[in-house]
């Protein structure tokens, strides 16, 4: 029975027999939550999109609604319209919501380019983190505190990505962000989120090692970091470094740091044109990543960066030479499940 039918049936039974024992759950919730990033406009305009989210997800995250460009129209204003809208949808449908992202180099409003000097940067960073995490205290149980802190191709001492925060505060901006977030909500899972740490290749290995260096430094300073987010934007032409990912996750576990998959999709611009073949490669890459993680620790959640090929960021940067649409997500453009959804279902229920 689809979740939505079960929910409607339960509500009907509950309404009819309100005084009797509560309706038993048809099946216990899965041990690993599956979720998806959500577009605020499609959530309002597209009933099939809303239905797919309710049918398949236990968790949602705003694709853009809680980034600085959405939340901070000016230095002295906060706009939580998009965050509140998704949280209301989550509440109405028994879903949890995670937050993305507090500190990043991108999606920053123009006025932030005038932030100059350590004091001003720390003031801006602290005000943002305290206000946003505080606003959703007890409502958002997990936040991407730092997004993409690692240099594109880390070498030696240049292992952090230059950004507004690093330039003005030094590498301490990372610890400050985690500490402000914990002060604002002591119960929230605090995550450092990164991409291109999944595959075989020197740059991927260097990025994993650089991220380990950041996490180790934070743990040595007793900073409140709880998990690493594998974004999981997998380039389909690259193999998953199963060994490398498993030992990376094991090292994190040894530091009492969990993992989750935050933005899974498979970039297929260089994969075969045949859709059946392409979908199989896509499912295989995701399965290899999830298995490599699970071999070392159970991820606390698995999220895809969207649920349907109808709404995906991938063609913004990775269009196919043959002009055929990308197929990075678990459901196709008509909300039909693909092998990637079966893979996710296997990992969500099995762990
Ligand atoms: O909403 C406006 C629209 O009104 C306007 O007409 C249009 C034309 O410029 O822009 C629209 O906003 C775009 C927004 O996505 C909503 O679709 C922004 O320009 C565009 O920059 C923004 O891109 C997002 C990107 O992050 C930057 O914030 C992508 O959707 C989103 O998928 C992507 O997500 C990131 C994660 O946050 C971090 N990890 C990588 C991932 C993929 O890049």
Summed up:
The chain has 351 residues and is an alpha/beta fold. The protein is 42% helix and 15% strand.
Q: What do these coordinates show?
A:
The chain has helices at residues 3-16, 40-45, 47-56, 68-71, 81-92, 118-135, 164-169, 172-184, 202-220, 242-254, 275-294, 339-350; strands spanning 33-38, 59-62, 96-97, 142-147, 150-155, 158-160, 189-194, 227-230, 233-235, 258-267, 301-304. With 351 residues, the protein is α/β, with parallel strands linked by helices. The relative contact order is 0.12. 42% of the residues lie in helices and 15% in strands. Strand 10 (258-267), helix 11 (275-294) and strand 11 form a beta-alpha-beta unit. The protein has one domain: TIM Barrel, CATH 3.20.20.80. The structure holds ligand G3I. Ligand G3I binds next to loops.
CATH class: Alpha Beta
Characterize the quaternary organization of these chains: single chain
CATH topology: TIM Barrel
Give me the number of helical elements.
Answer: 12
Largest sheet: 9 strands, parallel
Could you state the CATH homologous superfamily?
Answer: Glycosidases
- The count of DSSP E runs of length 2 or more, i.e. the number of strands, is 11
